[in-house]
Amino acid sequence: QVQLVESGGGLVQPGGSLRLSCAAFGFTLSDYAMRWYRQAPGKERELVAHITSGGGGTNYADSVKGRFTISRDNAKNTVYLQMNSLKPWDTAVYHCNAVPVRMGYLEVWGQGTLVTVSS
């Protein structure tokens, strides 16, 4: 079964850190560029970070630049999002998304993991 499974969310105090993981099952992650999105209650979904299929290129939303780092380990079929200096407005459900680099393949979405930044 093709799926992405996120983990690592939870409750953290402002200024703290979390590392999210996104594990792929049923397909080879190296054939996909990967993205992390987030959606806070009552707000639109926001693209947070992007990494190319080989890991050589990354992009970040201005709101997280310098605080978040996206990385991947294709041997482990897993993508990560290291989040430092967390702020209350980082609170959201975080989803990973696999974007195929070849035509004819479908995008894959994870179910999401909740990150709550609060004192």
Written account of the structure:
It is a single chain. The protein is mostly beta strands. The chain contains no helices and 11 strands. Strands 2, 4, 5, 6, 9, 10 and 11 form a 7-stranded mixed β-sheet that branches. A 4-stranded antiparallel β-sheet has the order 1-3-8-7, with no helix packed on it. The radius of gyration is 14 Å and the shape is globular. The mean pLDDT is about 95.
Helix segment count?
A: 0
Structural class: mainly beta
Low-confidence stretches: none
Mean pLDDT, all residues: 96
Q: Estimate percent helicity.
A: under 10%
Q: Which term fits the overall shape?
A: globular
Q: How far apart lie the N and C ends?
A: 39 Å
Residue fraction in strands:
over 45%
Task: List the defining traits of the structure above.
four-stranded antiparallel β-sheet, 11 strands, 119 residues, globular, single chain, seven-stranded mixed β-sheet, mainly beta
Topology:
Blueprint lengths: L2 E5 L2 E3 L5 E8 L6 E8 L6 E6 L6 E3 L7 E6 L4 E6 L8 E9 L7 E2 L3 E5 L2
